[in-house]
Amino acid sequence: MTGRTHAALRVLAVDDVPAALDDLCGMLREAPEVAEVAAAGDTVAALKRLQSEEFDAVFLDIAMPGLDGLEFASLLKKLARPPAIVFVTAYDQHAVAAFGIGAVDYLLKPVRAERLADALARVSRIVSTEKAGKTPQRQPAPDALAALPVESGGRTRYVRRQDVRYVEAHGDYVRLHTHSGVHLVRMPISRLEEYWANAGFVRTHRGFLVALSAVRELRSDSVGGLLAHTDLGDVPVSRRHARHLRERLLRAAQRGELRPEGMAP
């Protein structure tokens, strides 16, 4: 990688379907940001290449035999210098899990040239930032998580972010509290906080996020702690987060972004 500019990316493409792999490699080779493209027909072959070579990014499918794309990406994140990860798949239901493990982007097949260009631009920015010795900000595609797919009984339903009042951490999962019920999604709360911060969600506690627009009032509990009251229950507020929450609520109220009391969801 020495001597290459941030725009000269070295990319590894991984897909077990030869035609799909050829198409992806062809598109990547035509991109001005890409200097070199290597191909692997499965995750085992990809892992062997990554053990002996260094890549700026890995573009990989999810549904593959043996070690699937999500499991493979989790392994890559443990590398000393992990490559940026971009998923290329025919299925949209894995987006939450993909972003949950730090994917830079999530492209749906057939891949459109403009979406590939957007993903490569993201990778280029991250690589450039890393080479400058800074911590990169890996964000998903714009508003990628405005609705979260929730798996239940072999069916997928979508929970809109605007319907979520608060979020509760549950190990490697989060519980989304909505009027239609509590929905379990596999994603660390820290990752969801990163994605929803610009959509009005604020950390109130190590294990909770709350939608500013859902907060009716702040109240004290029986032992002097602070609670953010919503129409679906009280959310604990730690001392560490109390001041920031008050400031955000004040700004939201000044801009008229809080729900009027009693307003229907």
Strand and helix map with partners:
Blueprint: E1 9-14, H1 18-30, E2 34-40, H2 43-52, E3 57-60, H3 69-76, E4 84-89, H4 95-100, E5 105-108, H5 113-131, E6 147-152, E7 155-160, E8 166-170, E9 173-178, E10 181-186, H6 189-196, E11 201-205, E12 208-211, E13 217-220, E14 226-230, E15 233-237, H7 239-254
Structure explained in plain terms:
- This protein is 30% helix and 30% strand.
- With 265 residues, it is an alpha/beta fold.
- The chain has two domains: 9-132, Rossmann fold, CATH 3.40.50; 147-255, LytTr DNA-binding domain (OB fold (Dihydrolipoamide Acetyltransferase, E2P), Beta Barrel), CATH 2.40.50.
- A five-stranded parallel β-sheet has the order 2-1-3-4-5. The chain has a five-stranded antiparallel β-sheet with strand order 10-9-8-12-11. A three-stranded antiparallel β-sheet has the order 13-14-15.
- α1 (18-30) links the parallel β1 and β2.
- The longest helix is centred in the middle third of the chain and has 19 residues, at 113-131.
- The termini are far apart.
